[in-house]
Request: fold
Amino acid sequence: MRRIGGVALLVCALALAAGGATGIQAQQRVTVTYWQYFFQSKVKLIDALIAQFETQNPGIHVVQETFPYDSYNQKVASAVPAGQGPDVVNLFYGWLPLYVDSGYLQPLPEDAFPTTQIERDFVPMVKAARFGGKYWALPTAVRTLALFYNRDLFRKAGLDRAPITWDELLADAKRLTERDGRGTVTLEGFGIAPNGQDHQLIREVLFRQWGAAPYSSDGHRATYNTPQGAEALRWYTDLVAKHNVAVIDFFPGGNGYRDAFVAGRAAMIVDGSFAIGAIRGSAKFDWGVATLPRLTAGGTPANFGSLWVHGLTARAKGPQREAAVKFLQFITSPDTQRLWLQQVGEIPAGKALAGDPKLEADPVYGPFIQSLPYAHATFFVDETAQRTVLVDAVNEVILNHKDPKAALDDAAAREGKILGEFWAKHR
Amino acid sequence: MSLGARRAVSAYAFLALPVAFFVAIRILPAAQALFISLHRWDIVSAERPFVGAANFREIASDPRFWQAAGNTLRYVLTGIPAQLILGLGIAILLRRVARFRGFFRALYFIPFVTPIVAASWVWQWMYSPSFGPLNRMFEAAGLPAQAFLRRPSQALYAVAAMVVWEYVGFQVVIFLAGLEAIPRVFYEAAEVDGAAGWRLFRHITLPLLNPTLVFSAVYGTIVYLQLFTQVLNMTFGDQGGPLGSTLTVVLYVYIQGFQRFRMGPAAAATVALFAAILVITLAQLRFFSRQVEY
Reply:
């Protein structure tokens, strides 16, 4: 509350200052409300951006409101029927179908955000925000996956670089894994996390590289239950079941795999660019980032991309809508993207910045940025349920010794039902 | 108005406030749940079309719902007996010790006042196959290491054990009060007649403790039927997992309603749970309450 109080005071002070300068105009100021989840560096940056935006647009006043990450979607959803909420809202792209369907969002106006321009200026995965031929939201930054590895542990095991193929990763993991006298793993070669980022890894990277398209081209069916898909799943589950170089829930909790890496108890993990800040802040060892391995050295690269996007809610009407559109343009501009990268550490959503050779060569951001051209953002219609389906497939193979093909048949049938119900409504 | 009537009016006035509060935060939302269970609603949309019993049919054909219902029953059937037997055993032992009784009672009661979320995370670490002290203890005793929360056949009991740990102290306090209320003269009379040990317990303690036992069983059953926080936090990454083996009805409701935003099926499951709790509680009161007089 004290923070909010402070922000409110600051805002009042700014309002007064601006009001003093512009006199009567202050009375006609339009207020735009912006919602995002609480993440220190993002909140700080948006505060600074608001101050800058308000100086440029004396008639507009922007209020930022934030909520805890874990309950953010619930907060947004429950605010809607209560008739509350912001004009501009930050949403995970996987939630868009829900908010578009319900009429909570309005499409971005074509004059301010021409479709051709969006597709020219933004990285390909921005298409995840297109729905029914219209764009409903835009990102400032995007995220991809990469391999984080502990260089100190690598050196200790006599390894001098990150693995390039999955076979290499397995061989490295075997050398890196440490067990006690009873055979219990005390240090994981690979910090496995089916319900962390790994279900995305399996879905968009392993399936594709092993030769199984995860979804039909229209996205209406799950198609990964092929012999190739089963081989991919077998490779992944063997890390636990056969090679014992990875332990599910090695550290408890949703981010246990990252905690284990930071604690020096997992030598490698697959994680998103959003994890850079947390790892940089707490890992007390020499670590590196590498692009995700491939099936063969020259094989097909693949990656999973995801994004948080800013949408315009149906609440914004008239002058408020105009002001909200301006703010939206401002926070998705290349200038903001650059600040976002510098201060939040998320990779820019614009092609121009993402293609910057200096950034591509950055030892930490580089691998994430290099993955942008081949990053697929899964079109989730029900993220929770779709995640559970794949996590269950992994557990069926590892815990119940189910055949990977049979496990994927079940998964594809379950996910197919979820997709089918959604598309039946959107015919 | 007579003095009596005036007193009654002021009494009702004071009573009205809690009643209004209760109606507003308990009865009305419950009625609303019933309403939503008959409609399709994604929490965000303005429209809530009436769909009749479709939500009930949907959960009835969802294997996960039945898995959750079966699990919930297993939580009740393992947790309640364990909690009652342990609670009564500890209470009887505590009555035998004259020194440090308060200290022991407080010790057993501490888990009950420990924040559940924090306790759940600590238990998760205790169960950790790689780092948890429980497996170290098993090994020291020559027993094989266990997967606990990672094995579908064990996970539910691992969670139930934590809930028993949490509630046993509360149970001990209730039983101590119940035991205290049994007049000494019954035991003395029985001892004069030559009864001892098990027969005293069987024919005096148990029957006279019946009201306490019924209260504990009914209260405990409701607690287990509404199990949520412990499961959510002990399986935080894969909630209710692995493979739905720890899923409870309330967690199912939460996932449907607040993660998947399918309020209709969530409300239908809530109504089903309400009906189950009502029936089970009435049955317990009907079959286990006996008036015992000596």
Remarks:
- The radius of gyration of chain A is 23 Å.
- Residues 1-26 of chain A have pLDDT under 50 and may be disordered.
- Residues 145-302+381-425 of chain A form a domain with the D-Maltodextrin-Binding Protein; domain 2 fold (CATH 3.40.190.10).
- Chain A has two domains: 2-144+306-376, 145-302+381-425.
